[in-house]
Structure formats: C-alpha cells, structure tokens
C-alpha cells in the first residue's frame, strides 16, 4: 500500500492581541460614513480619493506614518450582495501585504470572515516545486472560537486534498492509506475488506465494479470507527470511486477529464469525520468507504448482467457508468445492519442533480422531517448550501425492471437524481434517520474561500447539526 503525503492542515489564526498587527476593518455599505468618520483627516482624504465605496470585496490600503500600509478597509457590501456570495474576506488574504492583520468586524460576521480567510489559504501544491504561500496572518478576538474554526478548516483541507490528488496517486489503496493516517491522527481504528474471495462473498457489488482494475488498484471497503461504543451511533458512508471510465459504457473524453473527483463522497466523509473526532463529539462514529476503480478489461461487469447485493436484492445492470450506487448499496447495507441513530451518505452520484440545481447547490434526500429542518437551517447558518429533494414514491416503479429486484440505470433520463436516491434507500431499513447528499465535489473557478478544485459540500452543515445534537 502506498503511503500518502502527510495529511494537510489549514493555516492557524492568531488569537488575541498581536503587537505587530495592523487593523483589517470590515466596512458595510451602510456603515461607510461612520467608518470614514473614525479616520483622521489625512486618512479620510486618502480613502475618498481611492474611490472606496465599501462594495463587497473592495480593498483599500491606507498608508501609515511611514508610508507603508497601516490600515486596511475591506468592503462588506450590503445584505443583498452578501447573500449572493460567501467567504469574501478570502479576497483580502490574497491581496493584503505580508504580515499580521487584526480583524475588526461585528461579532455576527467574525466567524464567517475568519473561516473564509482560512479556506482561501488552502493550497494544493503537492506537485509544485517552490510554491511558497505568502506570509500573511489574521488575528482574531479571543471571544471567537478559533479552535473550532481550525477543526472545520482542517476537515475541508483534507477533503480538497484527497479530491485534488490525481488518480495515479489516489487509488483505492491510497484512499485507505489516507483513512489510516486520519485514524492515527485522531485515535480511531481502521480495518479494510479487500481481496476477491472476501469481497465477492460479502460485498459483491463492490467486487463487480472494481474487479477490472489493474493489480495494485483492487477494490475494498474501508471501515473506520471511533468513540464510545455506547454513545449514539453516527455512521457516514462515502462513494470512493478512485477513477470512473464508465466501464464498458465508456465515457467520452470530455466527461472523463474530471473523474479523479468521483471519490468526492469518500473525501467528504473523511473530512467530516476529521471535524467530528477533533471536536470530540460524544458519538460512536463509523465511516464506511466503498472504494474501487471502474476500469475496462476482460473482467469488466457488463450491461445486462444481474448481480446480487450484500442485502440479497438483485440488480440488473443497464449502464456500467451508474456504478456509484452499486458500491454504495453494499456499504449502506453494512451500515444499516448496525441500526445507527443517524446514517449519512455522500456521493458524486448523478449529472441530473447538477442539471437540476447546478454545481454549487447539492441536493439532499431524507424522509426524516427533523433532520431535514436541521440540515436546512444549518446550511443557511454556516453558509454551506443544500436543497432538499424528495424520495418521490411515484418514481419507485422506474427502478423496478421486472427481471430483477432493481435497475441501476432506468431508461428515459428523467428524475435521475431522485431515482438514484430511491435506489439507495432500498438498502436502508433500520437506521433511525437517513440522508443522502448528491454532490458535485468541485469548484469550477476560483472564488473567495474556494480555490478551483475539489470541494467539501454539505459536510460543514452536517457538522453543525451533529454538534448541536451532541455537545462536546
């Protein structure tokens, strides 16, 4: 098994007073006059001459007595502008001169501003020699829970790093190695089920999807556990398709280019697990990753095959490119056998979800009204967008092919995200609450706090829900 590079960590905030810190002042559009009034005449004249109007993301560096920037004003815009954007202080992290800057902002905006700063500083430079980050730091008030922000940012950093790493260095074995490194960091335990005999007998769908991969790329089920066995059971399941060619239903080249991110579900659950464990939430955490490479060889599973799942349900294969729901089915069946209190599943599952909601707004599916309300509230509160979609019973017949219990790829192309979610739900009977997140896992172009590349989606909202339910 290949040892991964050391697990990434986010930058750290400076907490409390820093003697060399210069003010970084958030200025809302409706507070511009007040902010100008707090400056001395020379500073005010400078700011007015620059045309600073406190537009969202606008930065104004104000010279100090020696001529070097001694104060920075950062435009925070109005409520309408802030609703359309997130983590805008990340712009300042890229534009400010090196040194320490002291955040001056209303209390209700401090946490998001500081987290935006941290998330903007996440850099994927594993393959770039001499790529040194600018030495710029943010000092925050002691009243801000900086350690919690560090744990969240560390979880996001891990998720991004896992997705950004190309498939030649992030196959099933490397995903397992990363899980083992995380377990060592947090005092968890990890086991894996690997090998044709064990997988075919216990996880036949995982085996079928991954059996065509080359030696060293064998499929596996990774099982991480942490916490008091008697505590409430929280189980996270992630799709870990290290690369998806589409199998015999081969993807065109344009659709294959980003398939290193098809293990984004696994990356998200490992990042969320890092948050949960580092925060010390009083739960019994279990993380299951079904990992395989959907490759092409004489051993590939075929359209028309009928496979029997771990749960015993038979599945007709009508498209080998709908492999994610197959590996998840076996992992969800295992998770469900333990009757967890909460079972959460992440997957880069369907293009239909992106057609419906776009790349930045992942749908989630749940029958649990309380969990749905908690996730919706948390998504707004922590600015981690989610939108609830239905397990619509009227579409159940679409996943019932007649020749087998289930169809992995119903014809017609309509309601693809819903039919995929309904397929997964067939493997969950005992969990007290279940939710499935159909994520894109990728930021298409650099935005404040969100560099281009792999992305955590829904994990921060889920962490907020779990933190509210289970106080550390």
UniProtKB/TrEMBL annotation:
GO biological process, one term: proteolysis
Source organism (scientific name): Albimonas pacifica
Alphabetized InterPro entries for the sequence: Leucine_aapep/pepB, Macro_dom-like, Peptidase_M17_C, Peptidase_M17_N_1
One Pfam family here: Peptidase_M17
Record carries keyword Nucleotide-binding: no
Keywords of the record: Aminopeptidase, Hydrolase, Manganese, Protease
A single GO cellular-component term on record: cytoplasm
GO molecular function, one term: metalloaminopeptidase activity
Residue ranges annotated for the Cytosol aminopeptidase domain, each copy included: 319-326
The protein's name in its UniProt record: Leucyl aminopeptidase
Domain of life: Bacteria
UniProt record similarity statement: Belongs to the peptidase M17 family.
